[in-house]
Each structure stands twice: as C-alpha cells, then as structure tokens.
Amino acid sequence: MDFSRSKILKIALLILRVALGGIFIYAGYVKLQDPWQLFAAGVASYDVLPMWAVEIVAKTLPWFEIAVGVVMISGYFFRTASTIICGLLAVFFTLIVRAYLQGKEINCGCFGGNEPISPLTMLRDGSMLAGAIFLCVMAYRNRRTPA
Amino acid sequence: MKVVALALAALLPCLAAGPDVNKGKVLGNPSAPITLELYSDFMCPHCKHLHEDILPAIILDFVKTGKAYLIFREFPLNIPQHALARPAANIATAAARVGKYQAVNDALFKSQQQWGMSGRLWETVAPVLTAEEQKKVQELSHDPSVLAEVQRDVDLGMRANVNQTPTVIVTYKLKQQPWSMWENYELFKGYLDGLLKK
After folding, report:
1. Domain presence at residue A146
2. How far apart are CA A98 and CA A46, in angstroms?
3. Is residue B184 a part of any domain in this protein?
4. Is residue A109 a part of any domain in this protein?
5. B10 part of a folded domain
6. Average per-residue pLDDT in chain A?
7. B167-172 and B175-179 as β-strands: parallel, antiparallel, unpaired?
8. pTM of this prediction?
9. ipTM of the assembly?
10. CATH code assigned at B116
C-alpha cells in the first residue's frame, strides 16, 4: 500500500472537514431542541450585543451552523465554508476567553444547555479553532477540490 | 414502554418536589408541568429586584395558572459582605415552619438595605409575626434541623450549577436548566411558554 504524504494529508483533511462539519450540525441541532429564548439568554450573558441583536443571533445562528456544517461536509464551496467556520470559531473563542478573563460565571452556550465556561471549554474550542485554521490554510493553498 | 413513560411522568412532580421540600416554602400545584426552584440570597440586591419586580409576574403567569410549581431555596453567598445572609435564611426557613415564610421573605427583601447596614435582622422580621410565632421562630432559627435544611438548599444549588443569585432552576420533563438572566422578563416568559408548547 502506498501511503504517500499527500494521501495522508488528504485523509486528515477529510476527517477534519467531516468532524468540524458534524460538530457544527450538532451544535445547531442541540440549540434548536430548546426554545430560542434559552440560547438568547446565553448570548445576552456575554454582554456584547444589544437585546435586539441577541434575538436575531439566537433565532438564526443555530440554522446557520447547521447549514455551514452541511456545506462543509459536502465538500462544495470548501474555501468559503472553511473561512466561515474559522471566522465563527475565532469569534466564539475570543468571547469565551474574554468572559473567562472577566471572571464571568456564565454558560458557554456552545452546545445549548448548561455548560459553564471553564479551561476545558477553552481547550475544546481552541482545538476546534486550530483545526479550522488548518483547514482554511489548506483550502487556500490547494485550489483544487478537497478530499 | 408507554407504561414506563406514564409512570415516569407521574413520578416527575414527586422527583422535582422531592422529600427535601419544605411545604412552607412552595407555591402552586406540585403536579404542574414545570418546576421552578428559586435560589436567592436575602442580602443580594438582584434578588430583591427579582422578588419585588419579577416574581409577582412569574406567579401570576405561571404559578397561579397551574403551569409551574415554585420552590423557594436558600443560597446565602459565602462572602464577607453577605455575613447576615445565612442568619436571614435560617430565620426565613424557621418562619416557614410556622407558615410565615412569605411574610418574612417580603419583610426581609423590603428593608434589605436597612437591616443589611444596621444588622437588625430580628427587628425587621418580628413585626410580621405574632408573639407566639416570634418565640417559635427564634427557637427554630437555631435548631440543627433548620440549619441543615438551609445547608441542604445550598448543596442542592451547588449540584445544579448555581453560581450566582438569583438563579431559577427550571425542571421540565426531567431536564434541568438554570436561568439567571433577569434583565428581560419577556425572555424568561417566552422560554417557559416555549417549553410548554414542546
């Protein structure tokens, strides 16, 4: 069997793409299981958006996460999808770290429900961001269709 | 399968209310679909705001309509500025045993700033009790079972991830969710209405 470097890279990219896409679909789906007001309360607790914007984010972000996750897994618009995911994760990660440093004892809101921000949350989101940055770099480096 | 689901549904109010619920610290129908456990601290200004401005709306919209069962839980914060929070919680819990929890609750929040500054906790509570009740409450507020009850509330809150006051633990269909965003009551109302529509 010939496991060339490019083949391993292609497999790694495929796994990362499917994993990140799947996580985004799951994150959106979980949020949609509860009334939107729960996610809105989570968003509001970060104290970065006015209430009208919180409402818009709470109602649209879960659907957007699912859509971008599906596109990411499909492999179409790879550069666009990886850029969006990278941007979203950068925003999420920044907000989580900011809240943690401010000493806010709030829920992350990443996967709905009740998950207080902790070093573990930051490690998880940071790892996802690192993966997304890697995908993004590869997407821009290789103009061909990804694996 | 259906029988198990029905049995679980029948058990839910009992589980939510639990054996550790002081009957003097509840409002509403125990078999209501939603259980709200309100964790508060008598020295916390946000708890006063919730108690005086938001709680009446919650009671009107959800408790009196039979949609929610409300349980009052003590969560005195362990910080120097709230040194009287636990004695206040002890007195309120003792008052619950003579059926005067709500009156004491109202009195403590109403003049929170005054007794918080002066330390005259008992003088705040006494006027809402009869002479006989005063005697009982004073005795009970040092009773180990009352102190243990307050501590049990705190432990329950810690287990439910309560990390600030006021927090309401919303239990619906066995799922627990803490809520501590009180800037906008409509959001909380919408959340509960949304749960009931599920």
Report:
1. no
2. 9
3. yes
4. yes
5. no
6. 91
7. antiparallel
8. 0.83
9. 0.79
10. 3.40.30.10
